[in-house]
Amino acid sequence: MGAGHLVDPNGRLGALRQDPVVIAAIGPRGSAKSSLLNRIFSSGLKESSSRLEQATLGAQLERFYFADSDVALIDVEGFDSSDEKRYKIQGRAMTLTLAVADVVILNCHLHDLFRDVAAVFAPVAAAVTELKKLEKEKLVPQRTAKAPLLLLARDFDADEESAEEVLNGIKNEMPAEVLEEFDVMVSAVRSLFVEPDRHDMDASEIRTKCVSLVQSASANVRSKDVIPRIWSRLCQDENDVPDEGELQAAFTCDAAFQNSWNNLQESISSWTETVEGGAMYNDFGKMCDEYAAAALEKFDEDNSSRTSSAAFKRKRAELVAAMNRSFEDLASRQFRILSETEMQSFASNLESMSSGPNPNMGKDINALSKAAKASFVKKAEALKPRGSRVRYDTYQKELFNNIKTQAKSRMQFAQMTGLYHPPKREPISIGFHYLHPHPFGLDSKSEHLSLNDNVKFDVARASVAEDIGQPLQGPKVRREKQEYDDALKAYEVDSKL
């Protein structure tokens, strides 16, 4: 339908007329985002000739019909640009696009994820934080439900057996603020050059998934009338010049922030090494709370005369966010260790079960499974720092699936070796008279019953053994029964003749 820019390369706002379903595509520079979008949607976005070139500047916009809906595909300039002057334009463009997006696609290469997670997810988390500020100022209406975010892991090369585990691990690395705002789904995309056939299959599956997402989003499209107000607010901070006192407070608070952060890192350095080495702390959450409280106390003490300044509130919030990110990474490692420990404990309990015949084996294994699951949830809650948004649902799901698999294997082995025999189930037989036009009674959807009709189910009609019910007397039944009796009498008369 048309191409253009929502935000042009110079940072000027374009127009987005009407209220289409917006698909926002974001990702780091040089991730071949535009190329993949063109393959999925058959669009005509500008592509770069090499990974060193950045083709998308600002936010490209293309309108077309997709999944029976008017769709606006917005390709946002990749973050971590080599030109630092473009950081502000890119950041504002991504925040604006996420504010009006109905479906979000985050495109990145697998090696980017494992090389430096912060380089991929941190800019998205920063944009979500800005989005939350806009929601508090009521410039952006809060979502009634989480918007879908489809994370495309490019050049995926894991085998089929470990694919789900790798994809779950990628999702678990997502910052908590992103998981709170979006319903994150992870899909693998094989390399176009190494596995071209698999790449085409992956692109086709993603297109099918996007059809479903667009169809779901089309029922509740976000209004695009707020775009000019959002853009004006995003550009406002750049034009504001703080007074001299606020500048001095900002300088002092920056120094206090760095001082508190350095003290925290020095305090937890040895503890962090043991955690990264695989140590398990049952009171991990409490320890994080104590370290965080000490760092905040130091920051407040250094800025006791500036607690009312905007700089103090801003830098204190940044310190809290920085500590949470640091602790959340360690907490994720603790969740992983806890999941492995609980799985080993469950497997050990299975092995220690009696080797002889056990008629209650099913109940015993079920009890062990419930105990292991409850133990994981209880201990995982204790590992969460207070106020942290770190999640353990990915590890919980993985553990529960492994427990289910182990329990099923144990039951199958017991049945094969004769140690367990499942209880017999008595069969139930139901018969009906095939000559009756309505052997199971009237259908209330197609029959009109009167007050005089008997709506009791005619059990006699469903069984030829014993008459324990009364036949239904609906108008259609009476008519058909009369026709049947008349036909039977006519047949008997003809037979005698």
UniProtKB/TrEMBL annotation:
BP GO annotations: endoplasmic reticulum membrane fusion
A cellular component term, taken from the record's GO annotations: endoplasmic reticulum
Domain G: from-to ranges: 23-109
Domain of life, per lineage: Eukaryota
Signal peptide from the UniProt entry: none
Stated name of the protein: G domain-containing protein
Annotated InterPro entries: GTP-bd, P-loop_NTPase, RHD3/Sey1
Any one GO MF annotation of this record: GTP binding
